[in-house]
Amino acid sequence: MDARTEAILSELGGTLGKIDEEQAAAFAQMVYEAPRVFLAGCGRSGLMVRAFAMRCMHMGKTVYVLGDVTTPSIRKGDLLVVASGSGETESLVSHVKKAKKFGAKVATVTIYPKAAIGSMSDCAVWINAPTSKSEEDTGVTSVQPMGSLFEQSLLLFLDTTIVRMMELSGKSSEEMFENHANLE
Hints:
By secondary structure, the chain is an alpha/beta fold. It is built from seven helices and five strands, in the order H-H-E-H-E-E-H-E-H-E-H-H.
């Protein structure tokens, strides 16, 4: 295996190994129990969120990605999941404030759980990964550019959340495949 790949895998293992088990379990439980799940993230974090949306749909969840034209209004009892490395992205902060105003719960995955979004969230999962936009030192360095370590860790964490939800529901991969796109 290439040394660069080994370094990246080592970073991912170290970063994912630091995620708090109770936070991860609470996050999965919130997504599992929510009647409707709304997902938000910007840039590459937004791409990871879209992958999670697809898997949630495969699980049979009613799920929407903010910004899509078919996304309805959020309401009391719904869950807004926000992925934001900085926890301070203005548009996402605004979404969280509105969701809370309408009685929705909020869960976030972030590098900075004490930032604006994490402070307003009902559940905040901390991923200890550096980014070039970090204003404070996380104590972690990466061979990868910019926010890659956070974004990759986010995707793997969200996929692990799906596995947790499969365990909660008793759903198999085969059952989930019944919801896979068939107009391809």
